[in-house]
């Protein structure tokens, strides 16, 4: 979810570490001048390096991007970056915040722009040709970032600023980004010498290659394993799903068939509604075996090697395990605190699963199904329980969940809480990378001031990675002239048939709001420097999780949940059923997530020599008492959050940490006179929890919003679990 940074290494150093040298303090040699001239010419010729042009402060030239330009653009941008890093490092003037930290903040414009296009090719427009480039460039990018963090002269200048008495005279944001810059170097090998430094660089390069391979293997299994069914096998499936599956098959050249693609957005509704148990098992196994099929795309050996290298690398820095290193600068501080939170919730979650399975088995027995509930039955029988207990039919609810109307609802919330207005940009005015992508201008409702653009790429297609995510193509800063936001949301909804509304599930609607929360976090930002956008992983999910709560407000329900055929508002009695069933199936949702989060921590606190991924996953889950009817949300061989990059490695627990903040913050709104649209609480929300980004310590920011630390009891109440009263910070 955030701005694309090199997820290919463990570097927390910002991408923008290199850029223009200061002509007042650096003289170029003849060779430097020649290189500069060549660089300028290359930049002029390669659109991926050029400044964003056009309206709205400049926008990416998505209509002109060519894959053959990507590799030379990356290579050229790295040269520019390294040359300018040398200029900062070799500046003979005494190190100051302005000539070290600010210059580093100003740096890397070309590379940032190239990574915008790289991110599109990686996530939205992947192809075998791109993956070849990605495989070649991943270790080179890793070496590039390592070269920066191991620049001794640069680190000494950063250290001098960090230890200077002048630090106390800086603004709080400036002090924080100085600390973050120093900490990034210190935690990423800058303090190492000799062979240790060399080995550190070698590890990063190998990890970059392995993590890229892990990711491409998952995508290969998602593309290669599509389940095609016939008309005779459609029993139980909603009409909207059938039409979408038919369109998906036709787009793959399979006329007269129906495609169940190997993505969650296709798998989940199929398992919920299909009455064909044999097919449910096949679709379930196909999805959960991604990366685990014993073929050339199998990820088990890659997992072990990644864990071994990560452990070796942090040992060079003096840490006992990878999780200890990872969590040191997070809200949790250490793996023990993170695991402690998980263990507070885990017993209640699996106890709820036992109740849920008992309810399902009772229905199966009553129907003389002659089965014992298995994982591929869970969603199917959960839906039957939902209907029996709450008289709530998920497919009936889905008829009122139109993608376009939900988007309008999100705009309404943004207008009420953030004072934003969204206006569609005229087609063709802003370049896009696919015809499905639409763009809106975001302005202040009162002043009309331009805030940024919002790009939406909502539908699944070949070459697009699964899941949903948010990113930025440009973040808000003011230190070098105001730069407005270019934000983006990306999903994998199954597009409705031509001329028909795209209908989604309630869970997908929550995800839609969730990812929009990330976009609002980008758009609401009010910080000076780029580094203030670097997120604290167990905090950055909080804002997006909180925004999900507005989906159930009366204003949204009464105005935007309308039937796709009749236009009639969702009936009050159906809304009441939804609210009564709010904690239904919470055992499943909590357990499948927490199993992944707990395993992530176990992988990164265990000696890798004792880990064989396939057996380790199974044995550790057995020790935890994992219900046999549920599997991890992300089984190890396709756990891309953790093994295709280091963004969530040893940090997937962060969703749960953020959930505590979310539940606690939601109660602040529920206690307010105006509810979720209370102006005073909303203003505090924007000021302390959205606008500030990472310019303030997250724990301090939350206290300013709430007046105290968050309590786990709020989460337990929210999920309908027995309450334990204890703060997490």
Distinctive features:
6% strand, five-stranded mixed beta sheet, mainly alpha, two-stranded antiparallel ribbon, 54% helix, single chain, globular, 729 residues, 28 helices, Collagenase (Catalytic Domain), Neurolysin, domain 3, disordered N terminus
Can I get a quick summary?
This protein has helices at 30-45, 70-89, 97-106, 109-123, 128-149, 152-163, 172-187, 194-224, 239-251, 264-273, 277-288, 300-316, 322-327, 335-366, 375-390, 394-398, 403-418, 506-523, 537-547, 554-560, 572-580, 586-603, 613-624, 640-643, 654-670, 679-690, 698-706, 712-718, and strands at 227-229, 258-260, 420-424, 438-444, 450-459, 469-474, 485-493.
**What is the CATH third-level topology name of the domain at 15-219?**
Neurolysin, domain 3
Q: How many beta-strand elements?
A: 7
Distance between the termini: 24 Å
CATH second-level architecture of the domain at 15-219? Orthogonal Bundle
The helical percent reads 40-55%
Strand content: 5-15%
Radius of gyration: 25 Å
* Helix segment tally: 28
The low-pLDDT segments are 1-33
Instruction: Quickly name the level 1 CATH class of the domain at 15-219.
Output: Mainly Alpha
Strand order of the largest sheet: 3-4-5-7-6
Helix/strand/pairing class, anyone?
mainly alpha
Shape: globular
Question: Can you give the mean pLDDT?
Answer: 92
The biggest sheet, with number of strands, parallel, antiparallel or mixed sense and barrel status, is: 5 strands, mixed
